[in-house]
Structure formats: C-alpha cells, structure tokens
Amino acid sequence: MTTGYQELVRQNWGFLSSEEQHAIAQTRVLLAGCGLGSNIAVLAARTGFSRFTLADGDVVETSNLNRQAFRVEHLGRNKAEVSESLIREINPDARVRAIPEFIQASDATGLVGGSDVVVNMVDPGPALNALVQAAQTQGKITLFPMNVGFGGLMLAFGPDSPTMEDLVGPDAGQNLFVDIVMKLMPSLPKYLWQYASVAQRIQLEGVPPPQLGVASSLTTSLVVEAMVRVARGSEIPLAPAFTALDSREPSECLWPVDAGRS
Questions:
Q1: What are the boundaries of each domain within the chain?
Q2: pLDDT tens digits for 239-255?
Q3: Across the strands, what pairs with 31?
C-alpha cells in the first residue's frame, strides 16, 4: 500500500487491522447503477476500497441532488463518470473503470466475473435478475439496497440463497421495489404503515418512489459495512433475511444509573 493510502485509512485503526485493510484495498467492487451508487462509491473510497467498476447510462439531474453525492456542477454529466471523479478526489491512486452505459442482461456474466462483490442498483428488469443469477453461479455476493422512508434496507444474495424471482415472483416488473417494501412491511417501522397511500399512487400513476437524503446515508452505511464483511471473509445475513436502519426508530439507551457516583 502506498504512503498516501496508508494516510487515507490511518484512522480506521482499532476496528480494521492492517491485514483487513489490505483485503479491502484488493476487493473488486461492481457498482451497477451510480445514483445511490455515487454515495456508496464515496464512502467505500473513504473506507479504503480502491478497485471499482462503475456502470450507469444515466445523467445527473437536479432532482438527484437531494440524496446522491453529486453537485450542481455535475448536472448533465454521466453518473458513472462523475462517480469515478469523486472516488479519485479521495484516492487518486484508485483503480476505477467507468462504463457510461446501462447494463444489459448479456453484460452480467462478464461484469460479475471481474468483481468480488456486486452492488445491484439497476432498474427493475432482466439485467437486475441476471446480475443476481450470474453472481450466484460464480459464488459471489450481491447486495441489493433500497431507500425506504427515513431509513434503508438491504437484501444480500449468495450462492445458496433464494433468487430475487424466488422472493417476489417471476412477474414483478417496474413495481418491484414497491412489492418488496409491501412484503416486508410487517417487519418495518410502524410509521411507514401510514404511507400505504404512497405505494398505491406509485402503482397507479407510475410516479417515482419518494427518496430522502437521510435514507440514502443510512442505506449507504449498510452497504459499505457489508462490503467490509465480504472483504474480511465474514458471513452476512442472506435473503430472505434482510438488514435495515431507520432514523425515526433509533436505539434509545439510558445513561448508566451509577455513572459519576463516587
């Protein structure tokens, strides 16, 4: 590792050993989609991940700025290429391949083959399922993150886990994300229940799901922590289990009653 890299990750000490940090630096990450993926790219680079493939054919729009890592100066530019520049602002020595195109199902096997962990953020359709299936065939982990309300959740797929189609059925289309949230609703924070009308409007009118910046930050944290586990060779909960964080239902801990007493 270069001196610059060692300085970048110097304050990870205590929680990540030098051996683990080396494994993180060598882990090849595929970010399939660079909307939420832009946030993941930035936090992953700050954590020490240094080998990325970024794929997205979309361009930055003003409506992205409430939750993605982009700035006004990036408007109209390709998301994968901008995400590459954001990584290099943090780690100029990072090895980054930006693909300014939407992933097709036929691309899945090759892209997964060049990666150790896949973060699947492509729009619902054949490419999304193809990435999960290719990773399972090759014995690799796919992370599937979603912003939900003031929090986020993540499904992880491995060689022995169900597929996305197993969980939601083969007929799930553009409403895949809504279908997943509705299936998981009994396990999600109760404040989300009052937003059932939002899901109905999405399904009836075809409007994009609402997404908040707070949610993007929490979802990003879930994903990067899972990436660290993959790099370390640690187990992560696989589908149908899922992990979630929500800022409206934080853990509330009491100060120790004897603290400060002599």
A1: 3-161+210-246
A2: 999 999 999 988 788 88
A3: 54, 119
- The topology under which CATH files domain 3-161+210-246 is Rossmann fold (3.40.50)
Q: Which long-range contacts (CB under 8 A, 24 or more apart) does 172-175 make?
A: 172/124, 173/124, 173/125, 174/123, 174/124, 174/206, 175/124, 175/202, 175/203
Tell me the torsion sign for CA atoms 83, 246, 149, 229: positive
Residue 153: what are its φ and ψ, rounded to 5°? -140, 165
Q: pTM for this one? A: 0.94
For residue 21, give the amino acid letter. Answer: Q
**What is the tens place of the pLDDT at every residue in 52-68?**
999 999 999 999 999 99
- With a CB cutoff of 8 Å and minimum separation 6, the contacts of 230 are 27, 116, 117, 141, 236
Single-letter code of the amino acid located at 259: A
